[in-house]
Amino acid sequence: METTRKQIEREPTGVPGLDEALKGGLPKDIITLVTGTPGSGKTTLSMQFLIYGAQHGEKGIYFTLEESAADIIEQASLFDPSVNDLIASNMLKIVEVPIVDYDSMKETISAESDALDAKRIVIDSVNYFQMFFPDIISIRRAIMEVSLMLKSRHALGILIGEIPSGEDKLSTFGVEEFAADGVIALYLLEKQGTFTRAMRIVKMRNTDHITKFMPIEITDKGLVVYPNAELFQDV
After folding, report:
1. Are the CB atoms for 158 and 46 separated by under 8 Å?
2. What region does 29 belong to: left with phi over 0, alpha with psi -120 to 50, or beta?
3. Residue 95: beta bridge partners?
4. DSSP class of residue 155?
5. At 5, is the pLDDT very low, low, confident or very high (cuts 50, 70, 90)?
6. Structure confidence by residue, pLDDT tens digits, 186-232
7. Which CATH number fits domain 31-188: 3.40.50.1000, 3.40.50.1820, 3.40.50.300, 2.60.120.920?
8. 3-state DSSP call for residue 198?
9. Is 115 helix (H, G, I), strand (E, B) or coil?
């Protein structure tokens, strides 16, 4: 029997406007690739997702292979000062992952997720998988393996990726989007000298969703999506 939308359990993202664009939120137990150009809001969106979950009883963990935990906490506190209280109460954790080898990274993610009993997990970013493997096939296999590891814990997961500047691609390696159940792409678009932030839900398994480019803003309350607005007013 075909699965209907009413039968699908969903989780709110905590990002204003995004749940509306997703027709009710993210389907449970899926892995979403949040990809975008540098500075497009990937970290902000991901931290909003974790903070909202922690505020509503779902422990969350952010694994960073790039920025320091202190920098991520500082960025998040600009739009939600409660991040420090959530960390102090063990509802939220930011973990710096040493880039030693793939097995060590995977073990850190597994052990820390289990220790916290995390229900929302973010890995930033899958671009660093290239340091462990010499070929695209191995990178794709590793991303899929990590995705399955998160799913086995019945966690809602976000993998952060990157859209190379000036290229018509969704990800650095061109395989990340195939290892995820959903893809949310963030952009900084230029038209006639004006830059506009935008989002597109490229795919999302088991749910209907808005497919057009939607304007977004990064405000003092975090990232906001405007699903009913047109990207350029003269279009």
Report:
1. yes
2. left
3. 63
4. -
5. very low
6. 998 877 777 889 999 999 998 889 999 999 999 999 999 999 999 86
7. 3.40.50.300
8. strand
9. helix
